[in-house]
Every structure is written in structure tokens, then in C-alpha cells.
Write a sequence for this structure.
């Protein structure tokens, strides 16, 4: 790459389930190691020896060592992590957008697994599973009582192995078994459509290896459907992040060439870097620029970027870059606030260490760590308000979270009041026995925030939030 990074490899920045963030680089050779604190290491060895010989029952030596490593790393911040064999495999699957399973997007309903959508062309799609189907059993295990992650683990497995799902289809009022052969699934991180003539909507749900190619294909598809594009909505709501180079590429698709997208800064020389809107900063392999040939109008089409509390890391890089470069209007709710970079260094063939190595900064030099991107226009998720959004965990709520590095955090009493009010509302709803109100599907005709984005593009009045407050304001450092 022409920017001559001293590290080979690829970088990812993201948040899974609103908190887990990842960045990956190949191992970097060190010319020298930092001096070791011998006295403390002797104490560690002594404790290890005592536990091994004196504990009430025999202990697994390898488990003791890996637990010690995990404890040491996890105490640093919420995103540093030791990867054992299993978690390292899951991490790689998450960033590649590939996994072995049946191929369905799922959620939970009444303790059961609900099929949100079968992935087109997947084994589940070919088996005839439909949106709204409920999975009541996975092989011989009842789904009721399982967490969503446990259900996912049971449906995933090795290629060419079989899993039997028991399906309850509401509209037909019947249950039936379906046996599905697992295979590698390629997830779709980009969706899009014409909302109405002249106005396009593109949703990026995560920044993965295939995201840039899929994004470019979707843009061409929309412009082919309507070459006279009057406005575009880039939807980054609930996008937990992903690969940094993909975030730089999506930003570059809308920005003038060579303007700054994001910069990083940390202790290591190679962590001090500025990424610009140019192919050498986002191309992962030799070959053609994945953005080459995009419609020229994409650089100037009026743009709205939708974000919310679930927009984190790489999606905050994109929204921060477009905001600072005055390329689009950011609408929605204040984002998650994950502004740190993690480096994954392999420790062997199947284990690794994910370590926070830098903070990232928007083009104007803002650190969004523990604060997030504040929209230009605050808009609630529904016409009735943000409902339970105040209860969602954000970076600043995580224990041991890294500070912004740009002044002390100041807790806003209004945030605490909003959270307490939301908690009371949730309790009242639970007492009534009512089901929790859920925001409509993104991109649907009942998507309130999307409707307000369309109003903004058309110059119509926008229903601006009257209740949202900016969280975790920061004091300026005294010189």
C-alpha cells in the first residue's frame, strides 16, 4: 500500500452487541521488549505454584494460565480480550461475513426464536422457511429458555452436517419438522431500495469484507433504477462497526478525493496515522478500486445519515467524517461512543490477543470515545418518542471504559433522569402484561426516522425530538 504502513494486515473496528469492538493486524516483530517487573512476576509464579499444590482439588494448569491472561487483559478496558481457540474462530467469522449454519436472521419472541428473514439462497431459504416462523426445537432441545446466542450456537456447526428445526407457522396454525444441511453462509451487510422516485435508501448493517463491493453494486442498482437521484439516505442505525478499511471506503464514496476520513493515535509509531478518501487507504488487495465507476452524482447528491445508540465504532467513523466534511446531515440519536482501536495479534495458530492500541479522531480532531457522534438533527425512533432507548447501554456506561483523552467526562443529570423515567415506564408496561413496544423495521413504510429523513431531503418540516439530551459532555482541559 502506498501509504507505507509498517504493519501488514487488515484493521477492523466494531462493536458486537453494542460493546465488543475489534481491530485486527498481523503480528508485528519487536526489536526489543519492555523491561519485565521481576519481583511481581516472581509473585505470580508463587501464586501459581500454591494454587497448583495447595488447592482443595487438582486444577488444570493451562486453564490457570489462560484465566490469568484473560483477567490481566480484561481489566484494562471493555474491549481488550484474550482469544482462546473458540472465540478466535468466532471473531474471524464475524469480520469475514461468513459462517457455517442454516442461513436465517433471527430475533426472539415469547421465549422462542423468530425467523426475521431467511438469507436468499441459503439452506433455510431453499427449505421454505418464512419470515415470522417460530423455531420451537433445535434437534431434541426445546428453544424455550435458551438465550438467543445459545440457539445460534446449536444451529451452527460443521459443513454438511444436519440439524432438525421444529417450526410453528402462525398463519397456518401448525407445527412441522424441517431437516436442514448446514453450509457456509455469506451474510448480506448491505440492503437498499428506492423509497420513492428520486430518493434512495441504503442500509449498512455491519462493515465486513464484502461490504464495499456490495455497497457499490447496490449504488449502481439504485442509479440504474433512477438516474435522476434527488436525495440519498445512508442508514447506519444499529450498525455495530467492523472493518476500518470498509468504513474509509464507504466514506470515500461520498467525499471529495484525498480529504481526511479519520486519524488514529496511540503509543506505537504505527498507530499514529491519517486515513484519507483515496484507494490506497481502503484497498485490501491488489486490483481495481472497488469504488471506480460509481455514478458521479453520488459525490454531490443531498445526503442524510441515520444513526442511533446502536451505531458504534466504524459507523461512527463514517458519520463523523461526513459530518465534519459537511457532506451530509446526521439525523437520529447520539451514537454509542466507541472511539478506540483494537489490534489483534495472533499468539499461535488458533489463539490471539485483542488489545486497545489507539483512539481514533474525526477529521476536525474530535475524539468520540465515551461520547459518540451528536446528530445535527435529533429525531426519536417513533412518533411516541424514543421509548426505552435511554435504557440501552453505551460506551460510557461500561465499567473501566477508556476516556476520550480530551477532558474529563461530566455526567449530565438529565441523562440519569431519562434513564430512571425509562426504567419506571418499562416496569409499568411489565405490570400491565403488555408486550414491549418495538420500533418498526428499518426501511419499512412505518419507519418514523426514515420518514423524517425524507422530509429533510424534500425541505418539509421535520419532527425534531423535544426530549433527547446530549450525554457525557466533556470539560476542556485547563492550560
Amino acid at each position: 500500500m502506498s501509504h507505507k504502513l509498517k504493519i501488514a494486515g487488515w484493521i477492523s473496528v466494531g462493536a458486537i452487541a453494542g460493546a465488543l469492538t475489534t481491530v485486527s493486524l498481523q503480528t508485528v516483530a519487536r526489536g526489543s521488549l519492555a523491561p519485565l517487573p521481576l519481583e511481581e512476576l516472581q509473585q505470580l509464579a508463587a501464586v501459581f505454584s500454591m494454587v497448583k499444590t495447595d488447592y482443595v482439588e487438582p486444577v488444570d494448569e493451562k486453564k490457570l494460565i489462560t484465566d490469568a491472561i484473560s483477567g490481566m487483559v480484561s481489566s484494562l478496558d471493555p474491549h481488550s480480550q484474550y482469544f482462546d481457540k473458540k472465540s478466535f474462530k468466532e471473531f474471524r467469522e464475524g469480520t469475514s461475513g461468513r459462517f457455517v449454519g442454516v442461513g436465517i436472521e433471527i430475533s426472539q419472541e415469547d421465549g422462542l426464536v423468530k425467523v426475521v428473514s431467511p438469507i436468499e439462497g441459503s439452506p433455510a431459504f431453499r427449505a421454505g422457511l418464512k419470515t415470522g416462523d417460530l423455531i420451537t426445537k433445535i434437534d431434541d432441545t426445546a428453544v424455550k429458555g435458551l438465550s438467543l446466542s445459545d440457539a445460534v450456537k446449536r444451529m451452527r456447526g460443521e459443513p454438511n452436517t444436519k440439524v432438525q428445526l421444529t417450526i410453528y407457522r402462525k398463519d397456518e396454525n401448525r407445527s412441522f419438522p424441517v431437516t436442514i444441511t448446514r453450509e457456509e453462509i455469506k451474510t448480506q451487510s448491505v440492503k437498499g431500495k428506492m423509497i420513492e422516485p428520486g430518493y434512495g435508501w441504503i442500509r449498512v448493517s455491519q462493515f465486513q469484507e464484502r461490504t464495499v463491493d456490495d455497497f457499490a453494486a447496490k449504488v449502481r442498482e439504485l442509479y440504474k433504477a433512477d438516474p435522476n437521484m434527488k436525495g440519498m439516505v445512508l442508514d447506519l442505525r444499529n450498525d455495530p462497526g467492523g472493518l476500518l478499511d470498509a468504513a474509509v471506503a464507504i466514506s470515500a464514496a461520498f467525499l471529495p478525493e484525498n480529504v481526511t476520513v479519520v486519524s488514529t493515535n496511540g503509543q506505537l509509531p504505527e498507530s499514529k496515522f491519517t486515513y484519507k478518501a483515496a484507494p490506497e487507504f481502503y484497498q485490501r488487495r491488489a486490483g481495481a478500486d472497488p469504488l471506480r465507476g460509481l455514478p458521479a452524482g453520488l459525490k454531490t447528491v443531498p445526503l442524510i445519515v441515520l444513526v442511533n445508540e446502536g451505531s458504534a465504532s466504524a459507523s461512527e467513523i463514517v458519520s463523523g467524517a461526513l459530518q465534519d466534511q459537511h457532506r451530509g446531515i446526521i439525523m437520529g440519536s447520539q451514537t454509542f461512543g466507541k472511539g478506540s482501536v483494537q489490534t489483534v495479534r495472533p499468539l499461535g495458530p488458533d489463539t490471539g490477543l485483542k488489545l486497545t492500541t489507539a483512539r481514533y479522531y474525526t477529521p476536525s480532531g474530535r475524539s468520540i470515545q465515551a461520547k459518540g457522534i451528536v446528530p445535527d438533527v435529533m429525531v426519536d425512533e417513533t412518533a411516541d418518542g424514543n421509548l426505552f432507548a435511554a435504557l440501552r447501554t453505551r460506551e460510557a456506561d461500561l465499567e473501566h471504559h477508556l476516556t476520550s483523552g480530551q477532558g474529563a467526562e461530566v455526567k449530565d443529570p438529565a441523562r440519569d433522569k431519562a434513564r430512571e423515567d425509562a426504567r419506571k415506564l418499562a416496569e409499568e408496561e411489565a405490570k400491565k402484561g403488555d408486550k414491549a413496544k418495538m420500533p418498526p423495521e428499518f426501511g419499512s413504510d412505518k419507519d418514523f426516522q426514515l420518514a423524517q429523513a425524507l422530509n429533510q431531503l424534500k425541505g418539509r418540516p421535520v419532527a425534531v425530538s423535544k426530549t433527547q439530551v446530549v450525554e457525557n459532555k466533556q470539560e476542556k482541559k485547563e492550560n
